[in-house]
Design brief:
It is built from 17 helices and 27 strands. It is an alpha/beta fold and 705 residues long. It folds into four domains: 41 residues, no CATH class; 188 residues, Leucine Aminopeptidase, subunit E, domain 1 (3-Layer(aba) Sandwich); 161 residues, Leucine Aminopeptidase, subunit E, domain 1; 256 residues, Phosphoenolpyruvate Carboxykinase, domain 3, CATH 3.90.228.10. Helix 6 links the parallel strand 8 and strand 9. The N and C termini lie far apart (65 Å). Belongs to the ARTD/PARP family.
């Protein structure tokens, strides 16, 4: 935006998500008129994905470095890549004569070179491994970080100096300049300085990874882009990223345009997930994207047009060659071309037997995932557009076929996304309703009779803690999802698979009711900004919890009392808690439950849960096992408190007294990071702290002594 009311060249860049960009772009005329009348500003919508007279930017890799910082690899022209800061491959004199430096000056204006001259005149040459910062002129960024990389000499010194240049860059964007949220970094020294390309990209990725492992600076930085317009460099960046950080992840993280803002997930056993997400189908980063078109024109329809446009002319030419009328194929497979996927499955529709075609198409696409050995696929809401299948019917058919495939191929690891365009609320609601319905059916029909009996045996045994501990270790080390109410521990894989396939749970965002708004304001008063609130539905854990509560009621004359509490859970354990329940290993410090929002760190979640505390007693931080009800007695207390009359902290010694109900994902105000409030240190059990009446965690007490 520019405004003559302030200065001729005053400009602000306001980042928006890609789905919002698409909506505003289609109404750009009205938007410009409103902003002109209201603020006297001239507005322009631009995106890093839309090039000026060149190919669009292409993201080929994305992964979270920390719960709040994302690293991605892009094929794009750095002179038009929209970020807050761009790193330039500079020399010691900051003379930008050629290469990337020359291109940046040519695109951004000679004022970049003039400011660089003034810097050298004031401070002298920039040593190798150090940086200098100037404004960006006409470039679509605010700052240029001129990093002086080393000339390749074949020695370890060259590698160390490249690491220093990257580290100094990260120090600047993370610590010294708090206005930078996104930064773009090229392959420093790999051009005229002749640093070997693969060694260069590996060194850059390794330095970035170690920087955020070694410390977590207080920072506003959200994204690091590794950018090049050369295929070989992009491929090298991607290979280095996969080797050091792992394969591209599907979850996500809130990346503009690629990651949906709303997500309903159904976990089916080990490695099988069904998600309903809001987003753009053409921007998904799964192995496969499904297209939908008519028999004689696979480029018809809004979904198909979006996919083909993003994929580029190569896909358009590929589809033009296909004559499906002579040799009908329900599902045609092509490459992904410029999409962030390996393959595109094109579903060809006929107008007769539409529901049967939908059923067969979903089944065929999933079977092709087996044949091609891929692990993730994104479907649009097939048949709900021009085909005019009822939305609830389409949801039922698609979910039916996906769950049937999961049941037939229990060993296949597969993530299935159904992607709904953000403004299509009716379709999203229909698919979410179908998912919630299936979640109840799966959990109740699979194990309803054996759930209570196995839970009763579990809770009656004295080795519950050992069993739960083994379950947790197995889940963490091998990725297994074990129900926490197994009657007997077994190392037989067949039994384990049998139990895993029935263990499902559901997480879905909840609407902002008045109660949630009030709670959100309480969080904000403590310096915590709520990213999202999700409700957790796990019928297996619910059955185990109710069985435990029933046992406590039978031996507690007054019956268990209740209280609501928060549990601080590190971000990476949120899914595990939803699957298998709470355990002290998942939280720091020592399984503590916080009375107020202060205990939630950057990118971490607070689990809201119901707790049954049964027989309680006064405790302290030296207690590592439940105290006996009376001296010499075999029966023990279910919980201990720090203050009998007005307890602030409660510790329960049985994880099955906890039932996760809500997940609050929060970000903490950086100024409060050094003022975390921790209570007493309990060395065993699950510690909880009492909460205000409107909290989101309920605790059943029994009699507190």
């Amino acid at each position: 935006m520019t405004s003559s009311a302030f200065a001729e060249h005053n400009r602000w860049q306001i980042p928006i998500k890609h789905n919002v960009f698409e909506i505003l772009k289609s109404n750009e005329g009205q938007l410009c008129k409103v902003l002109q009348n209201k603020f006297g500003c001239v507005s322009t919508l631009s995106s890093p994905r839309v090039a000026r007279n060149s190919a669009p930017a292409q993201q080929v890799f994305r992964r979270m470095l920390t719960p709040w910082i994302e690293l991605s690899v892009w094929k794009d022209d750095l002179t038009r890549h929209v970020v807050d800061a761009v790193v330039n491959a500079a020399n010691e004199e900051l003379w930008h004569g050629g290469g990337l430096a020359g291109s940046l000056v040519k695109a951004g204006g000679f004022e970049i070179q003039e400011e660089s001259k003034r810097f050298i005149a004031t401070y002298g040459k920039v040593p190798t491994g150090q940086i200098a910062v100037t404004r960006a002129g006409r470039l679509p960024c605010n700052w240029i970080i001129h990093a002086v990389g080393p000339r390749w000499t074949g020695s370890q010194t060259s590698i160390d100096l490249l690491r220093a240049a990257i580290k100094n860059t990260l120090d600047y964007v993370c610590i010294r300049n708090t206005h930078i949220k996104t930064v773009a970094i090229p392959a420093l020294s790999s051009g005229i300085f002749q640093f070997p390309l693969d060694l260069c990209t590996h060194t850059i990725l390794e330095t970035i990874s170690l920087y955020f492992q070694g410390k977590q600076p207080i920072s506003y930085l959200k994204e690091i882009h590794l950018v090049s317009n050369e295929d070989r460099t992009v491929a090298s960046f991607k290979d280095a990223a996969e080797n050091i950080l792992g394969k591209m992840e599907l979850s996500p993280s809130e990346s503009p345009g690629t990651t949906p803002s709303s997500n309903v997930m159904l976990q089916i056993g080990q490695g099988q997930t069904l998600q309903i997400v809001q987003g753009c189908i053409e921007l998904q980063t799964t192995d496969v994207i499904v297209n939908s078109g008519f028999l004689h024109d696979l480029k018809s329809g809004s979904v198909s047009q979006s996919i083909v446009k993003q994929a580029g002319l190569e896909m358009e030419r590929e589809l033009d060659k296909v004559n499906l009328s002579s040799d009908y194929q329900m599902v045609l497979v092509t490459k992904g071309f410029k999409l962030s996927c390996q393959y595109v499955f094109h579903v060809a529709w006929k107008f007769e037997k539409k529901q049967q075609i939908l059923k067969d198409a979903v089944k065929t696409c999933l079977e092709k995932c087996l044949q091609l050995d891929v692990n993730s696929i994104s479907f649009p809401a097939l048949g709900t557009g021009l085909i005019e299948i009822e939305k609830s019917t389409a949801a039922m058919i698609m979910v039916d076929e996906i769950l049937a495939f999961f049941k037939m191929h229990m060993k296949k690891t597969l993530t299935v996304r159904i992607v709904i365009f953000p403004v299509d609320v009716e379709t999203y609601t229909a698919f979410c309703a179908e998912m919630m319905k299936r979640s109840n059916e799966l959990s109740l029909s699979s194990n309803s009779e054996t759930c209570a009996t196995t839970a009763q045996k579990e809770f009656a045994s004295l080795n519950l803690l050992l069993i739960l501990f083994l379950c947790v270790l197995r889940a963490l080390k091998q990725g297994f999802c074990l129900p926490p109410f197994l009657g007997q521990w077994t190392n037989k894989e067949g039994k384990l698979d049998e139990m895993e396939k029935f263990h499902t749970y559901l997480r879905y965002p909840v609407p902002l009711t008045q109660e949630l708004e009030d709670r959100k304001r309480q969080f904000e008063k403590c310096g915590l900004w709520v990213v999202k609130v999700e409700q957790i539905q796990n019928n297996a854990l619910m059955a185990a919890f109710l069985e435990k509560k029933k046992m406590m009621e039978e031996r507690t004359p007054r019956g268990p009392g209740s209280q609501r509490l928060f549990q601080q859970v590190p971000y990476q354990f949120c899914n595990v808690v939803c699957k298998v329940g709470f355990h002290r290993l998942y939280s720091t410090p020592h399984g503590r439950y916080q009375p107020h929002p202060q205990g939630c760190l950057h990118g971490q979640g607070k689990e809201t849960s119901v707790y049954s505390c049964g027989e309680g007693s006064f405790g302290n931080n030296l207690i590592i096992t439940p105290p006996p009800l009376s001296p010499g007695a075999l029966d023990v207390h279910d919980s201990v408190v720090d203050n009998v009359s007005n307890p602030e902290t409660v510790v329960v010694f049985n994880g099955m007294q906890a039932l996760p109900q809500y997940l609050w994902i929060c970000t903490q105000d950086r100024t409060l990071l050094q003022h975390q409030m921790w209570g007493q240190d309990y060395s065993s059990g699950l510690a909880m702290v009492s909460s205000p009446p409107q909290s989101w965690l309920e605790v059943s007490y029994g009699s507190t002594v």
